[in-house]
Amino acid sequence: MGTVTAPWKQLLLNALESNSHLKHSSFFQLATVGYNGRPSNRTVVFRGFQENSDSFQINTDSRSHKIEELKHCPFAEICWYFTDSWEQFRIGGRIDVIDGSNPDTLKIQQREKSWFASSVKSRLQYLGPNPGLPFISEQLNEETSLDPSAGPVGAFCLLVLDPDQVVFPVFLYLSSFMIDISWAVIRIQ
């Protein structure tokens, strides 16, 4: 018997497929709660779903501000807009921060799997200066080497968003016109 998939996940997978020719279709906005209680937003890259689940994977640098924000308040929301199909998904939930100090061996294995699924060029970013500081990418390539078979570096962190609320548009099709009639909100228990 196959894995049961949430109805919203198939809609999202369809949107990803129909927009896959656009490089930016794998980018979405991740909003966390900043230290001052205000929203803190940034663009991140979708790294896939956790195996046999509806949870999202995001690679990030453990030195970024979002890590401390998530340790303070683990709830976040992503907003994903697909420009060709005019679809927007807002997905909220709790984020699990998985760094090299995580005591759970299964989570450490997930982190390593995500590390090796990334390109060497992507992995090199974790050897550069702290996020938010300017750097010249050519300088990083000249001064830094990375053994492609080596495991994750200390700055590499895997974020796993476990959705508990999904908002997506419900459309009504009339002839050749598309009219947005409402937003569907699904709360996951």
UniProtKB/TrEMBL annotation:
A GO molecular function annotation here is: FMN binding
Q: GO:BP terms for this protein?
A: pyridoxine biosynthetic process
Pathway in which the depicted protein is active: Cofactor metabolism; pyridoxal 5'-phosphate salvage; pyridoxal 5'-phosphate from pyridoxamine 5'-phosphate: step 1/1; Cofactor metabolism; pyridoxal 5'-phosphate salvage; pyridoxal 5'-phosphate from pyridoxine 5'-phosphate: step 1/1
Alphabetic keyword roster: Flavoprotein, FMN, Oxidoreductase
List, for all copies, the residue spans of the domain called Pyridoxamine 5'-phosphate oxidase Alr4036 family FMN-binding: 6-98
Name the SUPFAM superfamilies on file: FMN-binding split barrel
The protein's name in its UniProt record:
pyridoxal 5'-phosphate synthase
Which gene is this protein's source?
LOC111313963
